[in-house]
Amino acid sequence: MSPDSISRGSVRSAADLNDQIRALWRRAGGSLSSQERAEYELLVVEWAAAMRGEVIEAA
To answer: Beta-carbon neighbour count of residue 56 at 10 Å?
Structure first.
């Protein structure tokens, strides 16, 4: 996933992204490789954007 796709808005829900983050940690056994760390960071950025979008929609 490119940073450009994040800036255009998330198509996945915050809950879905949270599930993916949890699954990544389970697969990694609690210790992320450099590649997994990069994936984690992208997921967290996308999750934060999705959370902001959900808060704005609720308001």
So the answer is: 8
